[in-house]
From TrEMBL:
Organism: Plectonema cf. radiosum LEGE 06105
Keyword Membrane: yes
Stored Pfam families: SLH
Listed name of the protein: S-layer homology domain-containing protein
SLH domain residues: 35-98, 99-160, 228-292
Signal peptide: none
Top-level lineage group: Bacteria
InterPro entries reported in the protein's UniProt record: Cell_Envelope_Struct_Comp, SLH_dom
Transmembrane stretches, start-end: 7-28
Amino acid sequence: MSNLGQLRIIGASIITLGLAIGAAIPLVSNAQTSPQSTFPDVPADYWAQPFIRGLAQRNIITGYPDGTYRPKQALERDEFAAIIRKAFEQNKEKQIESGSVYNDVPQGYWASQAIEESVEQGFLSGDQNLFRPRQEVSKLEAINALTRGLDLTYQASVSPVTTIPPYYMRRRAAMRRRKPLMLPIGITSLMQPLLIQRANAARTPRVATDSQPTTTATAPLTPASIVEQAYKDADQIPENAVPQVAAATQSNIVVNYPNPNILNPTQAISRGETAALVYQTMAAQGKVPQIDSNNPAAKYIVRVGENK
């Protein structure tokens, strides 16, 4: 074969190889830079769609191999660890050898690295060498994990309270204690015209000339008063968890659907609720935009004194 023929064959091979490589590169690039941001089971009118979409666009949450997100499914501890790992970058509070320090997290477990980091950063913890990765997470546990890991604390504040001066309080109490005057029957018959006159005068409305003055003072908002104002089921929150729930409520990171005034603290948190909670926590940190107040999802964000 002549040298010219060999050169033609080599040139054609190079062109073919170049086209093949060029066709392959966009596929790899798209796979790396385009996380799934929509899911067939999360329609546009789903209440948590803005939160889910916002996190999915940032590759903080992902769907299942079949492409679904399953927003109503209860969240498990290993899934929560994976979300925390992607959403927050906190300094480590302690060092553990590896996620396999827990007897129920074997080497090579899909979430072992996330579990390790979430424990080191103070979000989650184990118990007696067990992490219980497949255990469902309650809403209270999720709130406590975020407030603990991000060091969110209740901030003391005050609320206006109307008070009555002591003098008027004493006067009112004295009037309540005053006993009726007892008179002989003969005298009461003589007083009948006077009593009728007084009764008629009582029926005639008159303008008050001695209105009771009041003053406006400020009273501290305690963690207990915050949760009592915000949640109708505040009595279901354990006493030792009230400060954490109050801190989360003050930060506007709690999202309750369908009623913002019902926390359901002991109920398992769903994957949709988790997306809302994590998104709001990131929004409080300035990492993601706040949900627009005109968005229907905004009405489920708990704001003390605003939700009805």
